[in-house]
């Protein structure tokens, strides 16, 4: 299925179906011809579909709490990522919208000594930069693109950054 999703540029869902519902081999397929149709995601205007979710980059500068409030107003949360592909997608979404890898808030936050995604999903993938998280000065919110670099950082939640929201279609 990854091949099919890749052929759809990771942006769309795909329908996969056999050429014919009739089994010409009497129960044994030696070859299966597959056709797939890329279907645009069903996101609202301004949102971008990826992996079954809709994302939007907001260039306004807000602290982490206000950014999350803005995302909730739009029916979502600050974005979480669970794979290199999702992380890369979010970075490229920012680049496409802003023309650079602008520093931005995503939905990770430290709760005591445990890192969590604000959307409640498992904090199962993170691409921390070397030496991070360092919790310097109470840094306990997740920011990406520090200084425009491919860098996941723990930053002080009161800093003002752009942000990425995610919601269901």
UniProtKB/TrEMBL annotation:
Cited Pfam families: Lectin_C
Occurrences of domain C-type lectin (ranges):
50-166
PROSITE patterns found in the cross-reference section: C_TYPE_LECTIN_2
* Superkingdom: Eukaryota
SUPFAM superfamilies reported in the protein's UniProt record: C-type lectin-like
Among SMART domains, the record links this protein to: CLECT
UniProt cross-references to PANTHER family, sorted A to Z: MANNOSE, PHOSPHOLIPASE, LECTIN RECEPTOR RELATED (PTHR22803)
Its protein name is C-type lectin domain-containing protein
- The scientific name of the source species is Oreochromis aureus
Q: What is the lineage of its organism?
A: Eukaryota, Metazoa, Chordata, Craniata, Vertebrata
């Amino acid at each position: 299925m990854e091949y099919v999703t890749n052929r759809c540029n990771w942006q769309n869902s795909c329908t996969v179906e056999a050429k014919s519902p009739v089994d010409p081999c009497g129960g044994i397929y030696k070859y299966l011809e597959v056709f797939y149709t890329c279907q645009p995601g069903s996101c609202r205007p301004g949102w971008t579909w990826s992996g079954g979710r809709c994302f939007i980059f907001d260039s306004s500068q807000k602290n982490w709490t206000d950014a999350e409030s803005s995302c909730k107003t739009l029916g979502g949360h600050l974005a979480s990522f669970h794979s290199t592909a999702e992380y890369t997608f979010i970075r490229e979404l920012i680049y496409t919208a802003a023309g650079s890898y602008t520093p931005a808030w995503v939905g990770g936050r430290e709760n005591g000594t445990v890192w969590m995604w604000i959307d409640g999903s498992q904090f199962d993938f993170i691409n921390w930069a070397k030496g991070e998280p360092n919790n310097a000065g109470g840094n306990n919110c997740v920011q990406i693109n520090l200084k425009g670099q491919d860098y996941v950082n723990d930053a002080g939640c009161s800093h003002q950054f752009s942000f990425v929201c995610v919601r269901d279609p």
